[in-house]
Amino acid sequence: MEFLLKSTTKEKGILILHVPLWIRLVLLCIGSVVLFSLLIPVHEGSPAGFGVPGLVILILLIFGIFYEERWIFNPIRKTVSFRFGLLFLAKTLEIPFDQVDEISVERATKGSIQQTQRDDKESIPQHGIGKLFRPKQYSNLILYLRDSERLVIESVSLRKEEQLIKLKDQIRHVLEQGA
Fold it and tell me: How far apart are CA 104 and CA 97, in angstroms?
C-alpha cells in the first residue's frame, strides 16, 4: 500500500505533513479483527490459545497505529521540524531555514545509488515478460541542506509524481515566506 503524507496548512502559514488519520483507523480495524480472531479459541476453551503468527501480526499493527512521521515547516520560527518514530518515543530533528539549500523532486530507480534516470529506453524492457522484471522507478521529494546532507521527505511511485511536485511547491512557498 502506498500513500502520500497529508499536508495541512495551519494559521500563519505553518505547513504540516503527517501520516493520514485514515491509515491509523484502517490499521486499528484490522488489529481489532486479528485480536478477536485470537480470542475466539480462548473463549471456546481450546488448549491451543494464541497463535504466534497472529500475535506477531497484532504487534506489528499496534506499532503501525502508533508510528508517527511529521514534517513541520514553520515560517514564524523559521525552522523545519522532522518528528519520527513511535508516538511516545519519537525523535525530533530541527533544521533552521538558513540551512536549507534547496528542495527538489527527483526520479530514482530501485537498486541504483543516487544515479539520474537513464534516457536509454532500449535497455529497459517495455513489454512482455521483461516488463515484470524491470527495476521499479519512483519519485523522491528531497530536502538538500547546506552541509550536503540529503533528507528524503517522501518517496512514491511515478504515477503520483504530480502530487509530489505540488507538495514541493507548497514547501518552497513556505520556505520563501520565512526568508
Answer: 15
